[in-house]
């Protein structure tokens, strides 16, 4: 008789026996041909026949399942099941996979077999983890700690404007007292956070919205959703965008600030969520889902936005455009009289300041028209709105009889993250990191 046939015979016998003896103990498992669990093999053993793998697996407390290499008669003992790690369960024509038949300990129930997360325990054991304690090695460095899943679920960090308004950012972190963000350092309106432990985090970020306009709305900030693995001790510099100002009806609104997260000290961006443009006679444009801003005159490649007017019609937008990460916004100062819309930018205080020079909002003639911190452009108080800040700045779009602020651009380190153009609620920006359990 060939080994394979003997094995099938054995499996059949095993089930008959276990069903007829103790129903509680019956762990009839089906072997899955041409499949294997990758990455969790802790022991390989040469055996005379496949059923010997069951015997070898049952000798090891951490054995959860095994792969069998059919032509080589080798058992590969795994310390996970395919339920715990479905993403590692792959087609493999040379192997079959089977879960441990008897005596499998639940994942995380003993210190020798810690889980990496509560998510993994739920997947592996198919039950809720509430109220129980588990051995979890969150850092994946071999140090397991006994804890409840509810405790680690509470690990979330939400970075806000800390109550600051208008063109300057916060100067203290008292608003975080009693929260997980308490140790955050505030310098020049930017917040520095040291990641407290290694793990995967869900992140959600919003740019701020632009100020309301004549009878129009400010553009809403772009929203970013993603998952990131961060190492303990990594330092992030966070600038949370502040909403654009508005003087009330009959006037225009200033640009909203972008929300920025960069790795310190090299200042490589993790994400930037664009702020919305201020409302003019038309609604402000939303924070964009591209690195370039939205609307006419949008900045590109990290630069500030342009201002578009028509000098021949005496359309000189007197407001500021939004800033990008690298280049500030500016003003429209054209001596040339030409017909048709002209887009340009000259340095001025009304433009938002780029992230690298501080990120302040543009400075207006009156305080109620300052741009939002995070590079928002100032409004001029009458008809012209400011552009939003972002990875690239929003422009100011105007022509005969109408105007609208452009939205800032967005950037994500990982292209699988979702960016929703104008996906945020009206208000200030924020960025939150929630532990993925
Ligand atoms: C599981 O096995 C892998 C090797 O595949 C090993 O790196 C890891 O430490 C083992 N984990 C446990 C909890 O035994
Ligand atoms: C593993 O990481 C945890 C949490 O970061 C830490 O407390 C522990 O000291 C680390 N252990 C080793 C052996 O590095
Ligand atoms: C973070 O805080 C902002 C502002 O308070 C709030 O709008 C937002 O919903 C919070 N985000 C999360 C994920 O709790
Ligand atoms: C802390 O910052 C908030 C918001 O900007 C401000 O209102 C408050 O006065 C500041 N507190 C101190 C002690 O500086
Ligand atoms: C974004 O993340 C939040 C939680 O942080 C979640 O509630 C929401 O469904 C996510 N949205 C998308 C589109 O993934
Ligand atoms: C910002 O400008 C510097 C030079 O001033 C350049 O080296 C860098 O690539 C620019 N960054 C981006 C994101 O465009």
From TrEMBL:
Pfam families: ALK_LTK_GRD, PAN_1. Residues 1-22 form the signal peptide. Residues 272-301 are annotated as: Disordered. GO terms for molecular function: ATP binding; transmembrane receptor protein tyrosine kinase activity. Residues 26-102 form the Apple domain. Residues 273-282 have a biased composition (Gly residues). PROSITE patterns: PAN (PS50948). It comes from the Eukaryota. It is an enzyme of class 2 (transferase). It is found in: Cell membrane. SUPFAM superfamilies: Hairpin loop containing domain-like. Coiled coil: none annotated. Keywords: ATP-binding, Cell membrane, Disulfide bond, Glycoprotein, Kinase, Membrane, Nucleotide-binding, Receptor, Signal, Transferase, Transmembrane, Transmembrane helix, Tyrosine-protein kinase. The keyword ATP-binding applies. It is a single-pass type I membrane protein. Its EC number is 2.7.10.1. GO terms for cellular component: plasma membrane. This is receptor protein-tyrosine kinase. It comes from Stylophora pistillata (Smooth cauliflower coral).
């Amino acid at each position: 008789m060939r080994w394979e046939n003997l094995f099938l015979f054995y499996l059949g016998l095993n089930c008959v026996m276990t069903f007829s003896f103790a129903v509680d103990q019956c762990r009839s498992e089906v072997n899955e041909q041409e499949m294997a669990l990758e990455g969790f093999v802790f022991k390989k053993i040469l055996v005379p026949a496949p059923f010997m793998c069951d015997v070898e697996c049952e000798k090891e407390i951490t054995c959860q399942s095994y792969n069998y290499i059919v032509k080589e008669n080798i058992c590969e003992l795994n310390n996970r099941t395919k339920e715990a790690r479905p993403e590692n369960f792959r087609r493999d024509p040379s192997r079959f996979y089977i879960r441990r038949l008897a005596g499998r300990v639940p994942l995380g129930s003993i210190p020798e077999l810690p889980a990496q997360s509560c998510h993994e325990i739920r997947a592996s054991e198919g039950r809720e983890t509430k109220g129980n304690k588990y051995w979890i090695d969150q850092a994946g460095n071999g140090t397991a700690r006994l804890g409840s899943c509810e405790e680690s679920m509470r690990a979330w960090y939400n970075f806000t404007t800390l109550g600051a308004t208008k063109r300057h950012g916060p100067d203290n972190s008292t608003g975080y007292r009693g929260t997980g963000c308490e140790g955050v350092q505030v310098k020049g309106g930017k917040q520095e956070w040291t990641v407290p432990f290694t793990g995967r985090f869900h992140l959600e970020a919003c740019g701020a919205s632009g100020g309301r306009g004549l009878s129009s709305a400010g553009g809403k900030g772009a929203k970013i959703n993603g998952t990131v693995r961060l190492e303990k001790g990594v330092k992030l510099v966070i600038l949370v965008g502040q909403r654009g100002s508005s003087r009330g009806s009959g006037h225009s609104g200033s640009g909203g600030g972008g929300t920025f997260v960069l790795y310190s000290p090299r200042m490589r961006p993790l994400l930037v969520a664009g702020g919305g443009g201020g409302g003019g006679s038309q609604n402000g444009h939303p924070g964009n889902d591209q690195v370039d801003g939205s609307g006419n005159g949008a900045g590109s490649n990290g630069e500030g936005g342009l201002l578009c007017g028509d000098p021949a019609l005496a359309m000189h937008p007197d407001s500021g455009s939004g800033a990008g990460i690298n280049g500030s916004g500016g003003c429209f100062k054209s001596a040339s009289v030409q017909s048709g819309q002209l887009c340009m930018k000259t340095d001025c205080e009304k433009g938002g300041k780029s992230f690298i020079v501080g990120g302040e909002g543009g400075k207006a003639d009156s305080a109620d028209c300052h741009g939002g911190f995070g590079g928002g452009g100032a409004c001029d108080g009458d008809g012209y709105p400011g552009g939003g800040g972002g990875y690239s700045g929003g422009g100011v779009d105007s022509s005969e009889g109408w105007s609208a602020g452009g939205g800032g651009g967005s950037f994500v380190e990982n292209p699988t993250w979702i960016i929703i153009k104008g996906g945020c609620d009206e208000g200030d920006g924020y960025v939150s990191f929630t532990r993925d359990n």
